[in-house]
Amino acid sequence: MSRIEGARPEPQKAGMSSLGRLLPYARPYVWQFVLVLVLVVIFNASTVMQPYLVKVAIDSDISTKHPSYHGLLVIALIYVGVVIVGVVANFAQTVLLQNAGQNVIRSIRLSLFSHIERQAMRFFDTRAVGRLVTNVSNDTETVSQFFTNFFLSLIRDGLSIVMIVFAMFQLNARIALYCMVIIPVIFAISALFRGRLRRAYQTTRTRLSNVNAFLAENLAGMRIIQIFHQEERQSRAFEALNESHREANVHEYRTSVWFNRAFEILGNVAVAAIVWVGGGAVLRHWIEFGTLYAFIRYIQQFFQPINAMTQQWNTLQSSMVAADRIGQVLAVQPEIEDVAQTVDIRKAEIRGRVEFRHVTFGYKPGQLVLQDINFTIEPGQFIGVVGATGAGKSSVMSLLTRFYEPQEGAITVDGVSIDAYSQEDLHAIIGIVQQDVSLFTGTVKDNIRLFRQEISDETVRHAAEVVGADTLIARLSHGYETELYGKGSNLSAGERQLISFARIVALNPRVLILDEATASLDSQTEELVQRGLNAVATNRTTIVIAHRLSTIRHADNILVLDKGRLVEQGTHFELVRRGGLYAALDAQSGVEVGP
Ligand SMILES: Nc1ncnc2c1ncn2[C@@H]1O[C@H](COP(=O)(O)OP(=O)(O)OP(=O)(O)O)[C@@H](O)[C@H]1O
């Protein structure tokens, strides 16, 4: 369960370089972006032409000695034409840009997910799932705004400013120069708000991801929360996180409203100034009335793109923060990767001989969990692993599947070090059935073949029959096509186990690791599961992490772990006769050991 103190410290810096690192994802769509640029130029030209056309109408056809109705009609028609061209160009560029932006984001999201999938288990040990969910969903969404809104604003509004300034200087250089006085003021306001805005956005994003992380963990552990009556405590913790997010959000919004209002005031002051200065110029006949009209329109237009660009400041800030967070995940190199030249295997030829030689391992430096572990398992043997809780049983199996790597020693399968195999091959050779059966949203069939389309319906049926799951599946409303929800919550614990056994038979690994279920099943289901287990174990090397000694009484060899060391090994009778730890466990309350 997440604790509020566990919330990540709020980051202080995120730069353009994080966004820059995501730019290569836009490369395949560069032509779409170029086309957007062309359309933006057309749209801007249409906007800048409009006040100029009105100025021409006023000065040449209205405020003149020879007013011309015909001239006015022509200008009105041109005006409508220019507006239509502008609207069409604007529509096309918006659609095109959204399309390109969403494509970029799809690629980033996909590569982020694939990158996370390749990570070793240690990566997941040190990260809250909810935070990763935020990275893949919200952060990519935020970055998408950089490729759409920000990019568009930078080009459209930036160009717009340049074109308006150009048009002003064309009309009257002196008044245009007066207008330029506002530019340093704009910079001053921006500088004043920049740091505040950035900090506000970063804080909101981080607090949102804290809320998400808390939610994900609590939803996953809801059963435990309810059993231990922690609903209220967790609600209070959630309320605190929620409140801190609300505060950050309100603060962010307030800062951004102040920023925008400051610009609005400046815009109106500029219009008043132009009316005063320009009006005087008209009265002194220095400029024509139409020119004043055009200046007033241009100064208003000038503030639109500036306002829009400053609004995009928010987008830029949040995109940089999001890109930074995505970058942090992408920068983590998978701790365990395939060697350049992996051993080429034909699965059928693998015999399933497993050997641990002087294996020493700890999850954290200086904290050894396994010390100098040595054992050999011959092909086809049935092996039991026992020991008190925390003795290191699961850790041995995590090393064999290469979820972690040992600090010392070697682990081999058929005499070949496991790191010489590709991880894909290794996981085809070694299968694992865990206590906590992972079922996914999909049909029973999908879950047995784990979405691998190359596994035929025939194989799925056969696998289910072998472990005795076929009768249970036949009882379900749609048989193999029955949809499973919420990790298989519509099945009993025993049924979930049987489906996971069928899955492993369909995979057909040479070595099978079985973390025996501790959940108590009714005797009939237990018998069913036991039969299923025997069927799965046939014809392959099987290693059972046993919590009940009865399961492994007939094992070919039993490994007894104590505080990370292999203290005994032998058959049940040898170990009982020896009178050591195993014999003590065996004598203890019948047959129960472990958690
Ligand atoms: N991912 C992890 N990160 C850090 N320490 C871990 C991790 N997994 C296990 N440990 C620690 O390693 C030690 C051995 O744990 P392991 O799960 O291998 O024991 P186990 O014998 O399988 O226990 P159990 O029967 O309770 O499942 C324990 O002290 C445990 O706290």
From TrEMBL:
<keyword id="KW-0812">Transmembrane</keyword>
<dbReference type="InterPro" id="IPR003439">
    <property type="entry name" value="ABC_transporter-like_ATP-bd"/>
</dbReference>
<protein>
    <submittedName>
        <fullName>ABC transporter ATP-binding protein/permease</fullName>
    </submittedName>
</protein>
<dbReference type="Pfam" id="PF00664">
    <property type="entry name" value="ABC_membrane"/>
</dbReference>
<feature type="transmembrane region" description="Helical">
    <location>
        <begin position="69"/>
        <end position="92"/>
    </location>
</feature>
<feature type="transmembrane region" description="Helical">
    <location>
        <begin position="265"/>
        <end position="287"/>
    </location>
</feature>
<keyword id="KW-0472">Membrane</keyword>
<dbReference type="InterPro" id="IPR017871">
    <property type="entry name" value="ABC_transporter-like_CS"/>
</dbReference>
<feature type="transmembrane region" description="Helical">
    <location>
        <begin position="29"/>
        <end position="49"/>
    </location>
</feature>
<dbReference type="InterPro" id="IPR011527">
    <property type="entry name" value="ABC1_TM_dom"/>
</dbReference>
<keyword id="KW-0547">Nucleotide-binding</keyword>
<dbReference type="InterPro" id="IPR003593">
    <property type="entry name" value="AAA+_ATPase"/>
</dbReference>
<feature type="transmembrane region" description="Helical">
    <location>
        <begin position="150"/>
        <end position="169"/>
    </location>
</feature>
<dbReference type="InterPro" id="IPR036640">
    <property type="entry name" value="ABC1_TM_sf"/>
</dbReference>
<dbReference type="InterPro" id="IPR027417">
    <property type="entry name" value="P-loop_NTPase"/>
</dbReference>
<feature type="domain" description="ABC transmembrane type-1">
    <location>
        <begin position="34"/>
        <end position="318"/>
    </location>
</feature>
<dbReference type="GO" id="GO:0005524">
    <property type="term" value="F:ATP binding"/>
</dbReference>
<feature type="domain" description="ABC transporter">
    <location>
        <begin position="354"/>
        <end position="588"/>
    </location>
</feature>
<keyword id="KW-0067">ATP-binding</keyword>
<dbReference type="Pfam" id="PF00005">
    <property type="entry name" value="ABC_tran"/>
</dbReference>
<dbReference type="InterPro" id="IPR039421">
    <property type="entry name" value="Type_1_exporter"/>
</dbReference>
<feature type="transmembrane region" description="Helical">
    <location>
        <begin position="175"/>
        <end position="193"/>
    </location>
</feature>
<keyword id="KW-1133">Transmembrane helix</keyword>
